[in-house]
Amino acid sequence: MKTMFSYIKPYKWYAFIAILLMLVELSVELIQPLIIKKIIDDGIVLQDTATVWLWGGIMMLLAFLAFLAGVTNSFFSAHASQSFAFDLRNALFKKVQSFTMTTFLRFPSAGLITRLTSDVSQVQQVLFMSLRVMLRTPLVVIGSLLMAFYVNVSLAGYLVIGAPFLAMFLFIMVRKGIAYFSAVQKRVDRVNRVIQENLQAVRLVKAYLRGMYEASRFETVANLLKKDTSKALRTMEYIQPILLFVMNVSLLAVLWFGAGKIQQGQTQIGELVAIVNYALRMTGAFSMFSFIIVLFSRAKASADRMEEVLLIDEGLEHDVEDKGQLDIRQRGTLRFDNVSFKYPQTDEFVLYNISFECGQGEKLAIMGATGSGKSTLLQLLPRFYDASSGDIYVDGQNVQNWPLEKLREAIGYVPQRALLFTGSIHNNLTWGKTDASVEEVQEAAIQAQIHHSVENFPNGYETRVGQKGVNLSGGQKQRLSIARALIRKPEFLILDDSTSALDIKTESALWDALDGEEATMLVVTQKIRTAKGADRILLLEDGQVSAFGTHEELVKNSTLYQKIAASQQEQEVDDNA
Ligand SMILES: Nc1ncnc2c1ncn2[C@@H]1O[C@H](COP(=O)(O)OP(=O)(O)OP(=O)(O)O)[C@@H](O)[C@H]1O
User: Fold this and answer.
1) Torsion angle of alpha carbons 183, 187, 192, 194, nearest 10°?
2) In testing the pocket of ligand 1, which one of 352, 375, 539 has its CB within 8 Å of the most ligand atoms?
3) What is the bridge-based pairing of β-strands 423-424 and 363-368?
4) pLDDT tens per residue across span 379-420
């Protein structure tokens, strides 16, 4: 909770004013029974109409003051709670940006989405309600009790008979509430995960006629959410009747003994009415308690989940100071030195003792069967993961010593699955270089063989992609992804099987265009035709280097490469037949 409070700090004055205004409302509420007592004892009983009018008028004025305080309080509470939620959400989002890929495994995306949406909203709502009414409720109880003691000590004593029991009961219920609602938020995570997976795979769901199955999967998790929420709320439902029962017993005791004292002339009627009024206000406040405990327990559970993310200090991308000592003569060079790697949380190595070098401007094709480790190898370069052992040198410097920003700026990475963001094509391309000029955008698009297609779109580069925009083909998406990488004029261009959806003609035009690139290129490919055009080929087999050399060398020395070449030749013959 401490961390949550640090996000309220910048708005402490808004919160402070809101609390002051709430105290004004509270004071008016607590003074009212005293005024009623005065009207009864000094006005009605003594038949003094002037006193009734005077205190009646004061009561009206105070009620108006409380109304004004309430309206102004809403403004300050809303500003403090909305700003708090805005800052908290941004802080969470920024923290997530610094996660390593391993930490992402610990926090699945659905859980992060719940934290950034529902969890933030729960805490924001509680902050607003606290400044508005929640803080007031316990104060109404305490204030009413104190005022009751001020009016008549012996009668007020009956109101605290059940206090120790109530305190213990509320403590237990809050603890239960936090545990239950923490489970509920986990259920929300699961519901979000099913929705997310379903929407991402909507075509597959339709193609495999799995709509009904998906609906029943959703129903199962939604049902679990319903069950856990009902269980939590059912438990909380005991709060109100028990509190009201204890309060009503106390009230009966006040009336019973109060009536006796009036008959004996020890107490005035106005005093009894005032105490009953305070007791009713306490009862009214207690009836809000179950609602408050539900909100508070939910918010506490959400706050804990958010703090889990905010307070993480391991599993963040480790950066080093930029010492600017790069050796210009080694620019564009790459060296893997005995690199082995296993994914975190797994036991098996997927890369073993990989060693190879790549000169400036060299084009390296990486081949191997599916699952042989090609994508994994590429992901070590921008340090999405760190090697388990061995070293990787970029521009002659160990990647561990590169400032992350500089290292990634030097790399144009095109992943296996082309991903575009909602927005215009221009925005998607300049995502790779925010200050790119129109000419630079077009140049990259021409090189990636997508310029003509874009020009034929209804609004050219301003055409929107994604939802409410044009639907792009797989090949168009791949070429836009390549253009996005090229626009940075990277030192290293990494293409992870990024041309798989292109036809032969477009692909060979693309390779021709990339021939003039100064960047050192690492190209994962399954095609001998593409590998032939590379300077050297790295052939992987079960995570190990099976062969490394030019096409001619591999044709001579590598049986695996010969097999791949032969099978692709057969395929071409079949295709041409
Ligand atoms: N995030 C991950 N966590 C654990 N294991 C993984 C992860 N990603 C990949 N692997 C495993 O690592 C091995 C190498 O996978 P990788 O994706 O690098 O192969 P690849 O050669 O690129 O395959 P493909 O040609 O099918 O893309 C596979 O056995 C795969 O199951």
Assistant:
1) 150
2) 375
3) unpaired
4) 999 999 999 999 999 988 888 888 888 888 899 999 888 888
Burial of residue 141 (CB within 10 Å: 0-12, 13-18, 19+) is buried
Kindly state the DSSP code that residue 132 receives in the 8-state scheme. Answer: I
Angle at which helices 269-310 and 120-129 cross, to 10°: 150
Span from the CA of 415 to the centroid of ligand 1 (angstroms)? 13
Question: 107 and 306 in contact (C-beta within 8 Å)?
Answer: no
369 token code pair: 């069967």
Distance CA 81, CA 306 (A): 16
Q: What is the pTM of this model?
A: 0.76
- Six-digit token pair at 362? 């060299």
Q: Is the ipTM of this complex over 0.90?
A: yes
> Which ligand 1 atom is at minimum distance from the Cα of 105?
1
Q: Is residue 91 a contact partner of residue 309, using CB atoms and an 8 Å limit?
A: no
Dist CA 139 CA 136 (whole Å): 5
Region 111-127: mean pLDDT is: 91
Alpha-carbon distances, residue 84 vs 12, 73, 185, 380 (angstroms):
10, 16, 21, 38
Q: Is 376 in the pocket of ligand 1 (CB under 6 A)?
A: yes
| Closest C-alpha residue for ligand 1 atom 30 | 371
Closest by Cα among 35, 43, 105, 101 to 63:
35
Residue 18 is encoded by which pair of tokens? 């809101």
Does 350 contact ligand 1 (Cβ within 6 A)? Answer: yes
Per the model's pLDDT, the better-predicted residue between 58 and 292 turns out to be 58
Would you call 33 exposed, middle or buried from its count of C-beta atoms within 10 A (0-12, 13-18, 19+)?
A: buried
pLDDT tens digits, one per residue of 435-466: 889 999 999 999 999 999 999 888 899 988 87
Is residue 480's pLDDT more than 90? yes
Average pLDDT over every residue of 158-164: 80
For 358, the token pair is 């790549």
Give the closest residue to 315 by CA, choosing from 113, 98, 112, 115.
98
Residues 199 and 205: their CA atoms lie apart, in Å, by 9
pLDDT band at 328 (very low <50, low <70, confident <90, very high): low
- The tens digit of pLDDT for each residue in 80-118 reads 999 999 999 999 999 999 898 888 888 888 889 989 998
Q: How many Cβ atoms sit within 10 Å of the Cβ of residue 569?
A: 11
The pairing of strands 397-398 and 389-394 is antiparallel
User: Taking the CA of residue 100 as centre, how many other CA atoms within 13 Å lie in the half-sphere pointing to its CB?
Assistant: 20
The pLDDT of residue 542 is: 92
Residue 289 clears pLDDT 80, i.e. is over it? no
Does 105 sit in the ligand 1 pocket, CB within 6 Å? no
In the prediction, which pLDDT does 45 show? 85
Which residue segments constitute the domains of the chain, with CATH numbers given? Answer: 86-310 (1.20.1560.10), 329-576 (3.40.50.300)
Distance CA 391, CA 397 (A): 10
Strands 334-341 and 389-394: antiparallel
| CB of 374 sitting under 6 A from ligand 1 | yes
Three-class SS of residue 412? strand
Predicted confidence (pLDDT) at residue 252 exceeds the cutoff of 70: yes
